[in-house]
Amino acid sequence: MSVAKPLPHDAAHLHVTGAARYVDDIPTPAGTLHLAFGMSTAACGTLNNMDLDAVRAAPGVVAVLTAPDLPFDNDVSPSAHDEPLLATDAVHYVGQPVFLVIAETHLQARFAARLGKIDITETKPVFTIEDALAANARFEDGPRIYAQGDAASALDAAENTLSGSLDIGGQEHFYLEGQAALVQPGENGDMHVISSTQHPTEIQHKVAEAIGQPMHAVRVETRRMGGGFGGKESQGNALAVACAVAVRLTGQPCKMRYDRDDDMIITGKRHDFRIDYDIGFDEEGHITALDVRQYTRCGWALDLSLPVADRAMLHADNGYWLPNIRIESHRLRTNTQSATAFRGFGGPQGMLGMERIVDHVAAELGLDPLVVRQRNFYASSGQEIQTTPYGQPVEDFILDDLVAQLAKTSDYDARRAAVAEWNAANPVLKKGIALTPVKFGISFTLTHLNQAGALVHVYSDGSIHLNHGGTEMGQGLFQKIAQVAASRFGVALDAIKITATDTAKVPNTSATAASSGSDLNGMAVKAACDTLRDRMAEHLAQLHQCHPDAVVFAEGRVQAGEADYSFAEVAAMAHQARISLSATGFYKTPDIQWDRIKGHGRPFFYFAYGAAVTEVVVDTLTGENRILRADVLHDAGASLNPALDIGQVEGGYVQGAGWLTTEELVWDDAGRLRTHAPSTYKIPACGDRPDIFNVSLWDGENRADTIYKSKAVGEPPLMLGISALLALSDAVSACGPNYPDLHAPATAESVLASVHKAQDA
Amino acid sequence: MSKKMHIKLNVNGKDEEFLAEPRELLIYTLRERLNITGPHIGCETSHCGACTVTIDGKSVKSCTMFAAQADGAEITTIEGIGNPDDLHPLQTAFKEHHGLQCGYCTPGMITRATKLLEENPTPTEEEIRFGMAGNICRCTGYQNIIKSIQAAAAEMNAAKEAAE
Amino acid sequence: MYNFDFEKPESVADAIAALQGEEAQALGGGQTLIPTLKQRLASPSTLVSLKGIAEMQGVCMGDDGSVCIGGATNHATVAAEAGAYPALADTAAHIGDPAVRNRGTIGGSLANNDPSACYPAAALGSGATIVTNARQIAADDYFQGMFTTALDEGEIITEVRFPVPEKANYQKFVQPASRFALVGVYVAKYADGVRVAITGASNDGVFRWAEAEAALSANFSASALDGLSLSGDDMISDLHGTGEYRAHLCAVMTKRAVAAA
C-alpha cells in the first residue's frame, strides 16, 4: 500500500530539472500585457488628486486605471468588504495600491508606476499598540474575552503572583516565489485565471465580483506555489482581480507579479503581538490563576484578523490545565499592511505567551522550567478529562508521554546539568537549554470551512486522474493524496495523476490552510475512490457470484472469487458494462461546533502535539548566538508519508526559530517598512540551522477518525521554534540574578540588552 | 537613446546570438528571450540565489549581471545539468533525499551545488553550509538539502573511484 | 533602470578614453552598481566594464614584498591567490557569498567605499597603496567619508598594493541579512606600529582607531585594549543597530582581532 511510504514529492523530478512551472514560467500568449501598482507614499490621509500624465506617457503604457475606472466592485477583501483594490478617497498605509498601470512589459509597467504624482492630505496615523488604544482604533466594538473559572478571585487567593509583558514581532512570509497571476480572456466575457494562491475559490469569487459576472464565468487554476505559508490565502486577490479588470478593458491576456520589494511593502505579514499577564501560582509552580491580555496590530483592513486573534486566544493555554483563566484580546486597527494568515494563524503568538508565562514562573521559583511544564500539563488520556478555557474536553492528550520520551532521547537532564557546569566555568559564552511542548488545535474555527470535495476518473486503461480542492505549495499534499488514491484502488502510484487545482473541477473549496489539506481532501478523495471501487466491485461480484466485500483490490490486481484481473482489465470491463467510472467525493469534519462570541464549544476535531529541546550558546559580550542542537519529537499520527512530514517538521522548526530570533520587521516613523528586501530582513540561511538536528515522529495514531489515522502537520511544527527563544532566555539567565525579559525577535542587540538586564543589580 | 548590442552566448551547449539593450539583465535574457525558465526570479537583488547559473565555470546570480557582461560566455542553467531521463547525481539526490519542498529555490540550489562539489568534492558539513550561503530556501530548514549534497558527493566520488 | 551604452575596453588606456564621455561610469563586477542602477539611484550614459582588461587582473608579489592585486580582480581570486597575506585572503573569502565573490572586484569595492564594506578596512588597516591610472594614493589619503574617495572623475583603480604585516586579522560582525559588516575591525601589526581600521560603524565611513593603535603598538595583546572605548555619538544608527551598540562592538571586535591575529 502506498500510504505511509516515505516517497519523494510528486513533482520532485520536475523541480530538480527546472521543468516545474510556476505562474511566471508559463509561456504567455502574444500580446500579453503586464501590470504594476502605483502606491501610496503616505500612511494615512485623504487622496485629493493624482497627476498620472507622465505615467500614461511612459513607454509601453496601454492604460492607467484609478478607482473610478473600475467597472464593478472595488474590493479584494476576503472578509469584510473593506479593502479596495485601488484606494478611493483615503489612503491607509504606505504601499497601498492607488492606481494600476497596464503596459507592454513588466519592466515598463513598473517604470511607469513610479512616475505618478499623488496628492495626499496627510492625517495623523495610528502605528503602535499604544496609539491604537488611545484612539480606540480597533476592529469589533471592544475586546473579545474568553474565560474559565474565576481568574480575578483566584489571583487574589494565590500564594504567589507575578506580572510581565512580552513583545512578539511579526514575520514576513518570504515565499520564494512572489505573488503572481495570469488571466486570459475566454469567449463571452469568461476569464481563465492562473494564480499562485492557496485559495482558488476566493480568487474566483473576487474576480467574478470585480467583472460583474457569476462565478461560473471564472475558472481559476493553481498547479503549484513557490511557497505560501498563509501569505497566499488572501493576498493574491489583488493581482488576479487587477488582471481580470485589465483583461476586460483590453481584451488581451494580462499578467502581474510583484517584485520582492513591492511584495513586502504591499502584502500583509504575521500579526505582531504584545501579551501582558498576571499569574497566580503555588510554591510548586502550579498555575492557579491567569489573566492574559493580548494586543495585536491588525493593520488597516480586517482581512483574516478576527480568526487569527481568536486562534491566539484558543492557544493561550497551550498544553496546560488552567482552571482559572481570563483572556482578553484587542484587535487593533493601525496604518500598516493588513496583517494576514501565516503558518499557525495566531496560534504561535498565543502559545508563546503561555510558554513565556511558565518560564517566568519557573525562574521565579528557581525550578527547572520543564518540571513546571510537566506539573501543569493537562491530564493524559485515560484520566479525568479536563477542559480548555473554551470548554473543549482534552481527550487525546499525549504530551506527558511525548515530552518524557523526548527528554530521555535528547538526554535533557544530563545536558541541563552540563549547561550549568559550562556556565559556571565560562564567563563570556553562556549556554542555555529549553524544552517546549506544542498542542495545536486542528480545524478551521469558522466551522463551515471544514469541508472538501474531490473528483476522480478511472479511464478504461486503468489510469486514474483526480482533482481535489487543496493546493500544492511544497508541503507534498498532492503526493499524499495520490498515495491515498493508490491505496484505495490497490494500484501503483504511477497509475495516479493529479492535475492543477481547478475551480471547474471541484467547486466551493476552502483555502488550503489551517493545516487541513490532507485531512479534508484526503477524506474527500477516499470517498470518491471508494464510490468507484464499490461500483467495480459490485460488477465483479455479480459476474463471479461473490459478495462485493470479497472483491479485493491490491498490488495492481483485483480478485473476485476465483477470478484475478489486472486493475486495467477491470476498468475496461466496467466501461464495457456501462458503469460510470467518474465520481465526486465529499467530506465534512464531524463533531465540531463553536461559538466565537461566547468563546465556547468544540472548535477542534483533535489536537496535534509535539515538543522540541533546543540548546544555544550566547556571546554575552555581543549578543551573538547560535543553535547548537535541536531535538524534536512530533506527532503526525499514523503518517501518510513520514519523509514529507519530517520535512514539514524541520522546515517549521527553522521558520519558527527564524521568526523569534533574526526576522525583524522595522517600520520608520512615517510608517514606511524599512525591511523590504532580503538584504535587510534576515531569514534563516544554510548556516543558521542547528549544528545538530534530530527529528523524529511520534509513534502513535490519531484517536480521531482521520484519513488513515494521520494528523495534520503543516502548522504545528512552526511552534517548536519557541524552544529556541526560551533557550536563549535560559542562557541569558545565567548572566545574573534577574529574569532576562527577552522579547522576540531576539536579535543580537536585544539579547545583549537582555544580558545587561539580567546582570543589573 | 542607447545602442543595442550584439551579444553571443553559449547556453547549455547551444549558441545564441541576439541584439539587446545593454541594460538587459541576464535572468531576463534567459527567461524571456530564450524561454529557459529553470532559473527563477526570487529577489532580484542577488541575495536569494534562485537565479543562480554557471558562467564560464563560476556560480553567478544572473539577476545581478547584464547579458552584455556575459557576452562570449558559456552559461549552464539547471536545464543543462541533466534532464528527467538522465539526471545528474545532485538532481537524483535532491529528489531521493527530499532536498526540496516548493521547489522554487531548487534549480539555483542544485546549480550552485554542482560548482561547490567541483571546487571541493569532499566537503564537510560546515563547508557545505559556507558554500551554499548565497542560496535561500524558505521551506526545508536546509537539513535535507545538506543531506542531498552529501549523498551526491558520496555517489560522485564512488563513481570516480570505480572509473579509475 | 535607465538605459545606457556599454563599453568593454581591453586596455586601461581605452578604458580611460571611454570614461571621458559625459556621465560615463566604470563598472567592476556590478554587485553594488547594478542594484544601484535598478533603484535608479544612478543614471550613467555609458558603463565602462573593466572586467576585460587583462592588465588589471590577478594577484602578484611586488618587488618590495607587497601583495599587489589588480583592480578588476574578483574576491574569489583574492581569497584563492593572496596566500602571501593570509588575513587579506581570509577577508576576501568572507565577503558576501560565493556567487558575489565570483563577480565583485576589489577596485569596485574601494571605488564605491560603502561604509559597511570589508575591503576599505583591509586597505586602510594595511596602509595599502591605491594605484590608479594616474597616480598612487596612500590609503590614509584615499578614504574621505562614506561613498567618498580621493578618486577624480574618470580615474580608475588599476592595482592595490598591500604591504604584508607581521600579523593581521579581520573580525566582521555581520549584519546577518546582507552579510555586510555591522562592524568590521581590521588589525595589522607592522614593524613600525599597529594599524586598526574599522568599517561599518562610523557616519564618516572607514576610520582608524588611533587610541587602540597606540595601545597595541606598545603592547600587542587584547588586554592592552582594556578600558578603551569609542563614543556611539558619531556612529551609524539604523534599523540593524544603534550607534551605541556599534561603538560597543568596535571594542569587542578589536580585541577579538588582536587575539586571533
Descriptive account of the structure:
The complex is a heterotrimer of chains A (761), B (164) and C (261). By secondary structure, chain A is an alpha+beta fold. In chain A, the strands form seven sheets. Chain A has an eight-stranded mixed β-sheet with strand order 3-5-1-12-9-10-11-20, sandwiched between helices. In chain A, a hairpin with a 5-residue loop joins strand 9 (180-185) and strand 10. Chain A is globular. Chain A starts with 11 loop residues before the first helix and ends with a helix. With 164 residues, chain B is α+β, with helices and mostly antiparallel strands. Chain B folds into two domains: 5-80, Roll (Ubiquitin-like (UB roll)), CATH 3.10.20.30; 89-163, DNA polymerase, domain 1 (Orthogonal Bundle). The relative contact order of chain B is 0.15. Chain C is an alpha+beta fold and 261 residues long. Chain C has three domains: 5-49, Uridine Diphospho-n-acetylenolpyruvylglucosamine Reductase, domain 2, CATH 3.30.43.10; 56-162, Uridine Diphospho-n-acetylenolpyruvylglucosamine Reductase, domain 3, CATH 3.30.465; 167-260, Enolase-like, domain 1, CATH 3.30.390.50. Chain C has ten helices and twelve strands. Chain C has a five-stranded antiparallel β-sheet with strand order 4-5-8-6-7. A four-stranded antiparallel β-sheet of chain C has the order 9-10-11-12, with helices on both faces. Classes of the chains: A alpha+beta (761), B alpha+beta (164), C alpha+beta (261). At the B-C interface, strand 4 and helix 3 of B face helix 2 and helix 5 of C.
